[in-house]
């Protein structure tokens, strides 16, 4: 049987505010456990929450960036459940009146088409603390520094139909929130966490199947694997005549397996009610217009600018513009590199390949855009050949050299581009190959002549010990042989 | 409106409140009376009334994003039943 895959996403985005959503505690990463957990965060009796204006501003900026309606009057609700990393016994969230209403994001797919993914809404809520299950004499350790960190939870419509589309959306959203500066985008630290809702239905059917939710995926790779894994699991069950149970599942990326996390009977009985500690938050036009003024260049605009300003093709422009930091790295490279197209090739080629191979983000790269740009400039002005440039890149990456010129000098990679010296070599080589020269000059077909030039290049490269600039050799040859 | 034993047992589990057999009968009538009161309220015609999310007719004040809290871990942990390495310790929870 043929199946349609239906995917919806819920994304938790940690907002890059200085303080928590309901208290003046710092949200700085990496502090000693519980040193950033105040009386409000610990749910001490008698405390009252006061919402952070910046969290609302960031949420509104997100709403504007995804073409959404802004909730003029948003209301906080209590979602009740017991877990020790949630000291209040409820999470303060927004259920019926979220800050961001329906919107959409357009994603680019590999076949060149675009697809619109609708956003159902996005709401503000607080993060929980962290549970450490290592052995504390059979007990669990709780760090509440993260408790109360502001999140927006973005909920999409079930508009994606493959792992490719879901990952494309996730990457787009990641690029969007990091470009907006409302999230640091560091997925390895949990700044963005994805929950994936998946169901299958017979091909062409209008009726949605029972869905499962796979929670807390914090890398694009795991997300892709988890979707493939869950689709296969559901397909096996359905094709054996079984039924899918609505449940939450956890995917273990290291082992490539998933397990059920919560049974259905306990699920979703959160007994939501409006939080009596918080009044409705009213956002006026001035606030919205103020947030609009703070919107930086967004990935779609940046892509258009890259095509216009640097003459990049659509594909390269998209790859370089999605992520704000990748875009900044490229622009730094291009500004030092003299040749934007060549800079794009190096950033997307050698540089990206190394990041992937070492599982690093742009920020963790051991070289700067300026360093790569200087190398690109030396390729552009023919100081170094492309094979020599790879050696320079290697030295910069490994840290054995800190600028392209010094590495070229130290490793003797400089191409001979002195026309006088090259001409002398050409004269000498041609003098030793009179027969080939005559043959070339008698040939009437320019195409065949062009081919014959190759016969001279070998001896020339040998004469120059591999350091002659092939492009210049070629020019000189054509001139000498023709005249 | 009445409330069933099953409802009471379920709510007790969700609220992590231990309720013994003897209490359930009493709760059945007490909670039933409260629900009857709510039913009476439900009889009011609210067709033209905007739903209220808070009894006060006021708007929430927001706070500027500045750190105002200092580290009080020692004071808070002095009243915690168990701590170690700066962590609060709780009975093991593994989901």
Automatic annotation (TrEMBL), chain B:
Catalytic activity: L-glutamyl-tRNA(Gln) + L-glutamine + ATP + H2O = L-glutaminyl-tRNA(Gln) + L-glutamate + ADP + phosphate + H(+); L-aspartyl-tRNA(Asn) + L-glutamine + ATP + H2O = L-asparaginyl-tRNA(Asn) + L-glutamate + ADP + phosphate + 2 H(+)
Subunit structure, interactors included: Heterotrimer of A, B and C subunits.
Gene3D superfamilies the record matches: Glu-tRNAGln amidotransferase C subunit, N-terminal domain (1.10.20.60)
Organism for this UniProt entry: Marinobacter xiaoshiensis
Family statement drawn from the similarity comment of this UniProt entry: Belongs to the GatC family.
EC number(s) from the headed UniProt entry: 6.3.5.-
Protein name, entry field: Aspartyl/glutamyl-tRNA(Asn/Gln) amidotransferase subunit C
Tree of life domain: Bacteria
Function (record text): Allows the formation of correctly charged Asn-tRNA(Asn) or Gln-tRNA(Gln) through the transamidation of misacylated Asp-tRNA(Asn) or Glu-tRNA(Gln) in organisms which lack either or both of asparaginyl-tRNA or glutaminyl-tRNA synthetases. The reaction takes place in the presence of glutamine and ATP through an activated phospho-Asp-tRNA(Asn) or phospho-Glu-tRNA(Gln).
Taxonomic lineage: Bacteria, Pseudomonadati, Pseudomonadota, Gammaproteobacteria, Pseudomonadales
InterPro entries for the chain: Asp/Glu-ADT_sf_sub_c, GatC
Claim: Kinase is one of the keywords in the record: no
Keywords: ATP-binding, Ligase, Nucleotide-binding, Protein biosynthesis
């Amino acid at each position: 049987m043929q199946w349609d895959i239906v995917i919806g996403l819920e994304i938790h985005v940690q907002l890059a505010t200085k303080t928590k959503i309901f208290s003046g505690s710092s949200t700085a990463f990496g502090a000693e456990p519980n040193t950033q957990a105040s009386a409000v965060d610990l749910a001490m009796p008698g405390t009252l929450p006061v919402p952070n204006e910046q969290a609302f501003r960031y949420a509104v900026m997100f709403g504007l960036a995804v073409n959404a309606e802004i909730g003029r009057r948003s209301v906080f609700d209590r979602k009740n459940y017991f877990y020790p990393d949630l000291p209040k016994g409820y999470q303060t969230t927004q259920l019926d009146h979220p800050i961001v209403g329906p919107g959409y994001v357009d994603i680019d797919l590999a076949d060149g088409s675009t697809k619109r993914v609708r956003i159902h809404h996005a709401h503000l809520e607080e993060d929980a603390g962290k549970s450490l299950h290592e052995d504390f004499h059979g007990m669990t350790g709780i760090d509440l520094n993260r408790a109360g960190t502001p999140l927006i939870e973005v909920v999409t419509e079930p508009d994606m139909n493959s792992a490719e589309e879901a990952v494309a959306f996730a990457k787009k959203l990641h690029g969007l929130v990091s470009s907006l500066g409302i999230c640091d985008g560091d997925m390895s630290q949990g700044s963005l966490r994805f929950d994936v809702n998946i169901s299958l239905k017979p091909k062409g059917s209008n009726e949605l199947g029972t869905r499962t939710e796979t929670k807390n995926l914090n890398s694009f790779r795991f997300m892709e694997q988890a979707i493939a894994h869950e689709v296969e699991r559901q397909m096996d069950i359905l094709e054996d005549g079984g039924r899918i149970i609505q449940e939450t599942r956890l995917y273990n990326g290291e082992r490539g397996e998933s397990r059920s996390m919560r049974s259905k009977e306990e699920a979703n009985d959160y007994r939501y009610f409006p939080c009596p500690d918080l009044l409705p938050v009213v956002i006026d036009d001035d606030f919205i217009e103020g947030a609009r003024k703070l919107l930086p260049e967004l990935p779609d605009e940046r892509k258009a600018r890259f095509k216009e300003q640097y003459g990049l093709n659509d594909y390269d422009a998209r790859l370089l513009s999605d992520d704000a930091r990748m875009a900044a790295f490229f622009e730094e490279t291009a500004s030092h590199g003299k040749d934007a197209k060549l800079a794009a090739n190096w950033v997307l080629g050698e540089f990206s390949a190394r990041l992937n191979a070492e599982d690093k983000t742009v920020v963790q790269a051991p070289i700067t855009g300026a360093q790569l740009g200087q190398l690109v400039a030396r390729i552009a002005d023919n100081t170094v050949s492309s094979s020599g440039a790879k050696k320079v890149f290697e030295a910069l990456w490994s840290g054995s050299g800190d600028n392209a010129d010094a590495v070229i000098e130290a490793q003797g990679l400089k191409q001979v581009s002195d026309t006088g010296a090259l001409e002398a070599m050409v004269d000498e080589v041609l003098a030793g190959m009179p027969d080939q020269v005559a043959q070339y000059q008698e040939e009437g077909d320019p195409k065949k002549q062009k081919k014959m030039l190759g016969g001279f290049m070998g001896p020339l490269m040998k004469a120059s010990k591999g350091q002659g600039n092939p492009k210049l050799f070629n020019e000189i040859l054509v001139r000498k042989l023709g005249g | 409106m009445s409330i069933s034993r099953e409802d009471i047992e379920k709510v007790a589990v969700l609220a992590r409140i231990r309720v013994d057999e003897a209490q359930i009968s009493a709760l059945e009538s007490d909670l039933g009376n409260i629900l009857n009161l709510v039913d009476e309220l439900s009889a009011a015609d609210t067709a033209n009334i905007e739903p209220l999310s808070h009894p006060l007719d006021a708007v929430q004040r927001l706070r500027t994003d500045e750190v105002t809290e200092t580290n009080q871990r020692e004071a808070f942990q002095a009243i915690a039943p168990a701590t170690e390495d700066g962590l609060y310790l709780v009975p093991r929870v593994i989901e």
